[in-house]
Amino acid sequence: MIAILLSTYNGEKFVGEQIESIISQTNKDWHLYIRDDGSKDSTIKVLDEYASKFPKQISIDISCPSNMGAGESFMYLLSVVDADYYMFCDQDDVWNNDKVEKTFQRIREIESVHDETIGIGVFTDLTLVDSNLNILSASLWKADNRHPEYTKSFYKQWTNRHASYGCTQMFNKAAKELVLPYRQFKNIMGGHDNWVEYILIKKGVYEYIDEPTILYRQHGANVVGANFGHGYRQELKKIIHNPSILLKNLRKDYDRMKLMPFHVSLFLVLWYRFKQSITSFFNING
Question: Quick one: CATH architecture of 2-228?
Answer without folding.
Answer: Alpha-Beta Complex (3.90)
